Amino acid sequence: MLISSFFPWFVVLASFTVRVIVYGITYTSGIVYVIILKNFQTGKAETSWISSIITTVMFATGPPSGRLVKALGWRVVAVVGGIIAGTGLLLTSLTSNLLFLILSYGFVTGFGCGMAYMVACVAVPAYFRGHRRQKMAVAMASCGSGVGTFIFSPIVQYVYVTYGWQNLFIVLAGVGVQCSSVGLLFRPLSTTSTTDSEKVAEKIANWGFLKNVGFHSSHLGFFLTAFGDSIVYGHLGEYAETLGFTTDKGAYLYSVIGISVMILKLLQGVALDSRGSTVLPIKLAIFFFFLGGVATVILFVSNEYILLLIFATIFGANTAASGGAVVVGILETYYGYEHLELTFGVNLAVIGIGNLLGSPIAGLLFEAYETYTPVLILFCVTKVLSSLCFLLVYKFSSQTRKTYITDVKLPQKEAFLEDKTVLTLTSGEKVPLLVEKLPRRYSDVISENMDTLL
Q1: Which one of 18, 44, 406, 427 is at 20 to 30 Å from 442 when CA atoms are compared?
Q2: Which residue has the higher pLDDT, 257 or 12?
Q3: Whole-angstrom distance, CA of residue 39 vs CA of residue 44
Q4: Contact (Cβ atoms closer than 8 angstroms) between residue 400 and residue 437
Q5: Residue 98 and residue 363: Cα distance in Å, rounded?
Q6: Which H helix or E strand runs over 423?
Q7: First CA to last CA across the chain, in angstroms?
Q8: Sign of CA dihedral 81, 281, 150, 16
């Protein structure tokens, strides 16, 4: 009984660990890029596809992974994803051909990491659905991305220098396959908790949300913010060097970003749990994306390194709002928890496309004008436009949002009350239910299925 009550927190630990591994493998691709240049004697342009493809494929795997999760469950998808990722890295250690390396490292490893990452993203909110600490749990799990990026960079560099590039990929293969071991913790929710509401949710969980104009507006916002983030992640270090700072100081800025991301994700999780507001996630997205854009002004004020550190800190706060509890909160509130595997999958794909395009386009601008001024302006514009996209969604949805109370008859089950306590109800017992009216399509579903849904 004690283990069962604490098991959701083991799921948080599993999700955290998977994110550490996945981000540790995919977001050290910049180091792998340098390693391939030195050992394969290839050109910079063709080799640069390595770092772009693995992250893009990881995120683009979202939609098919969402369907696989629906069909096969979390555990199977996570285990298979870890095996695929490990296999891709092992194959990479056996080749000296760039094209084969792009296929094995970029596509195969990226696809496997994407499968495991998808499960890590959706399992925690599902296990903590209705729990007063749901957003905090999601935030804690999402911190694994920052930790993975932070600790894997020196490890990858050390293994390469000590044992060579082929052994590096063998070691990474062993690490990647551990997603399968950890994935065993993603056990399905108890069949006793599969209630009529979940059966109805399965029936209505389809791609109908794609007809929602608000969904496209919010995901245009996600695309723009990922596009802008890609510019900073790809060019901040080089921008610092153009100002006369050393490579080490440029690299330190990324560490500051990582620390800021971790801290802000935790703080956002605490805020979302304490306020209990369904619209707070989108308000945070609006605020932090806008803040990230206007923070660009700092870079035009002076070339002092302290201002770069301040910008990196603010940018990290902005990046924290593009993942974790904020994204889950937006998707569940506006498009329904029953669609989370599908909406989150589309979300990852959109972010992947933004990541793919942002940095290369910024590089073309720099080559055309031989200055980073237009690049910084582009970043500012995309972040502000992203904030406006979410503002439109918030304003449109607020027009139809209201609260009403109705009496419903519940079967025997656990129900979460207004004060976040749990009450076990006997079959046929009636209780007042506080309902926050969502856009029409969801209120229709509630009214049509009231007896079985609740």
Answers
A1: 427
A2: 12
A3: 13
A4: yes
A5: 22
A6: strand 422-425
A7: 26
A8: negative
Q: SS3 of 190, please?
A: coil
Q: Rounded to an integer, what distance in angstroms lies between the CA atom of residue 373 and that of residue 94?
A: 43
Do the Cβ atoms of 364 and 202 come closer than 8 Å?
no
Closest to 124 (Cα-Cα) out of 424, 342, 340, 350: 340
- CA 417 to centroid of chain Cα atoms: 30
Smallest CA-to-CA distance from 176 within 21, 290, 38 is with: 21
pLDDT of residue 445: 38
Q: Looking at residues 54-64, what average pLDDT do you find?
A: 84
Read off φ and ψ for residue 58, nearest 5 degrees: -60, -45
Closest alpha carbon to 336 in 453, 417, 226, 452: 453
φ, ψ of residue 199 in degrees (nearest 5):
-65, -40
DSSP β-bridge partners for residue 434: 405
Structure tokens at 454: 């609740």
- Residue 293 makes CB contacts below 8 A (sequence gap 6+) with 228, 379, 380, 381, 382, 383, 384, 386, 387
Look at residues 48, 22, 62 and name the one whose alpha carbon lies nearest to residue 350. Answer: 62
- Give the C-alpha separation, 180 to 119, whole Å: 11
Interatomic CA distance for residues 56 and 67, integer angstroms: 19
Alpha-carbon radius of gyration of the chain: 23
Q: Are strands 413-416 and 403-410 parallel, antiparallel or unpaired?
A: unpaired
- Of the candidates 124, 165, 134, the one whose C-alpha atom is nearest the C-alpha of residue 18 is 124
Closest C-alpha among 318, 214, 195 to residue 261: 318
Q: Which helix (H) or strand (E) holds 415?
A: strand 413-416
Hey, what are 121's tokens? 């993203």
CB atoms within 10 A of CB 105: 27
Burial class, 6, CB count within 10 angstroms (exposed 0-12 / middle 13-18 / buried 19+) = exposed
Query: For position 91, what pLDDT does the model report?
Result: 95
What are the phi and psi torsion angles at 429 (to 5°)? -75, 135
Say yes or no to pLDDT of 404 above 50. no
pLDDT band at 53 (very low <50, low <70, confident <90, very high): confident
Secondary element (H or E) of residue 430: strand 429-436
> How far apart are the C-alpha atoms of 445 and 200, rounded to whole Å?
9
Distances (CA, A) of 385 to 95, 222, 291, 314, 378: 44, 10, 12, 18, 11
